[in-house]
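FORM 7B: Structural annotation worksheet

SECTION A. Query
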Amino acid sequence: MEEVGNPESQIQKPNIIVFLVDDLGKEWLSSYGATDISTPNIDALSESGMQFNTVYGTPQCTPSRVTLLTGQYPFRHGWVNHWDVPRWGGGAHFDESLNPSLPLEMKKAGYKTFIGGKWQIDDFRVEPDALTRVGFDDYCMWTGYKTGNPEASQNRYNDPYIFTKEGSKLYPGEYGPDIFKECLIDFLRKNKEAPMFVYYPMVLTHGPYEKTPLDSEIPQTTLETHASMVRYTDLITGEIVHELDKLGIRENTLIIWTTDNGTSRGLSAHMNGRTIDGGKGSTSESGICLPFIASWPGTIEANTKSNALIDFTDLFPTFLDLADVNVGDNWRVGNETQMIDGKSFKSVLLGESLNSQREWILGMGGGNNARLTDQGVENQYVFRDRVVRNLRYKLTIGSNKSPKGFYDLETDPDEQQNLINQLNTEERNKNYEELLSVLDYFLDRDNDPRYIPNPRQPWDVEVTAESQVWKMESQ
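SECTION B. Predicted structure
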């Protein structure tokens, strides 16, 4: 690591707030060079701290969220593909007895914990205590139900159906994102004297595309509606930061602002002179190289940019590192020891190093390639396709474990020129071999999700994949 500083004093345990926006790429944030929209509050957050350029998630909802919670890659925790538990069910759920759980570990470290927004990996009708078990003291959640309840139960925006400690109910005439925000702010006010861990997986900007309270009239196009939803995300961001200032706890609060995957397909925007198509569901850079901002006034230097290599597995060990919990490569879960893939980037945040502990970052998956069997949720592929990159080069690996593409992202950010057969320079060949060696890190077979099944429910929507071949050894 390159040393750039060496703070001597022990820092107080910071509050940690994680914004996880739904379905939004860099091309919709003006701090990253977006020109179709202005996001002044997110820009201000970036200017107050550090904006990262090379942070990988996954191209789908469930894998990114479980990766954040566990510090493990999808091939290890098993949620390689999207699985919408409240809708598809089948007994699947996030099982904290068999998996690492970030909020549970933060709670053990002395933090008050809160979640507001979208969970999607438990069905609260089946497990009303799910969020308490995984470690949250309080919560305010969109239920995600589609069947088995009144029609309004699927609403997340206008007239939302929301789950709290008082149970689930309809909020007619109200706007869901406002309710989640107010619950979060109420939690901050009640717990400002204790260290707080706040996880805010927003429902914005995922479809359905509906008008926001900023709109006097219904927008005419999906693109206009999406832009309005981004502006409302920006507004909420500013309101929460303002509340931290009012409470006098802003300087002891680390804010991480990021998204779960790229923008939905069919939504294009302009950034730094390029047209960027929404990359959700794809391992293109627009699908997995995500906006990522860290703000902590007085600790993180303001208005800085970072090229440190980070991916979502790194959040688990970084937050616990900041909470003074010693995190190694292995973690005890029940009677089992499991490997943690993430590496703490605390030193990058504190200005002690320009570089993370990583030589590469990983993204994998795309599309919904999972089905329900008698054994539970099963991934289609023995080895799901994936991409590995360093600061400049990116290697794509097929489900037969063979390299398929090699790209120079510095000269070809849109990944149009495959160099796999043009390893004709020493630099290209060296980087290709280094990225190819990462294959040795992977399991021979991807795991399927680990959980003790819940009873199947009459409202479960069947997800069929009978036309596909299972398990696939190659592609």
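SECTION C. Observations
Residues 7 and 352 are 7 Å apart (CA to CA). The chain has two domains: 15-358, 385-441.

SECTION D. Sign-off
Analyst initials: ____
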